[in-house]
Write a structure and sequence with these properties.
Blueprint (H helix, E strand, L loop, with lengths): L2 H4 L8 E4 L10 E4 L3 H7 L4 E5 L5 H9 L3 E4 L7 H10 L3 E3 L4 H10 L17
Parallel strand pairs: 2-3, 3-4, 4-5
Antiparallel strand pairs: 1-5
Helix pairs in contact: 3-4
């Protein structure tokens, strides 16, 4: 799925805040975390990143990993310097009033999930 297709889904309530020219990026998976070091270690190129962080360091992480874009959940608005940096670096930033949990669930329902072999521990079936 492409970012420009994803933002058109009304249930997600997405608003593009930066990176309008990069919405043709393919989404290869998703990752959710608010801890930047965790994202740097585990997110993968082409992922869409769901977070509640809104400072400009999220742009640096997205650029480093070549992420498809950033979704800032929970109605949190990105800071002005974040938007400026995102435009400079060509990183799409999307906001939504939905809580991160709902965004992640809806992305998963659309078939956008995490890669299985991130080195993460699989949940044991009981």
């Amino acid at each position: 799925m492409l970012l420009n297709e994803l933002i058109q889904i009304p249930e997600l309530k997405f608003t593009v805040k930066a990176g309008h020219e990069q919405l043709d990026r393919a989404i290869e998976g998703a990752y959710a975390s608010d801890l930047l070091s965790h994202v740097m270690a585990r997110a993968r190129e082409g992922n869409i990143w769901v977070t509640i962080q809104a400072h400009q360091n999220i742009v640096a992480v997205a650029t480093l990993l070549n992420l498809a874009g950033i979704v800032i959940a929970g109605g949190i608005e990105p800071q002005a310097d974040t938007l400026h940096k995102a435009e400079e670096e060509g990183v799409p930033i999307i906001s939504t009033p939905l809580p991160a949990f709902q965004v992640i669930g809806r992305l998963y329902a659309l078939g956008i999930g995490a890669e299985a072999d991130h080195g993460q521990t699989e949940l044991a079936q009981s």
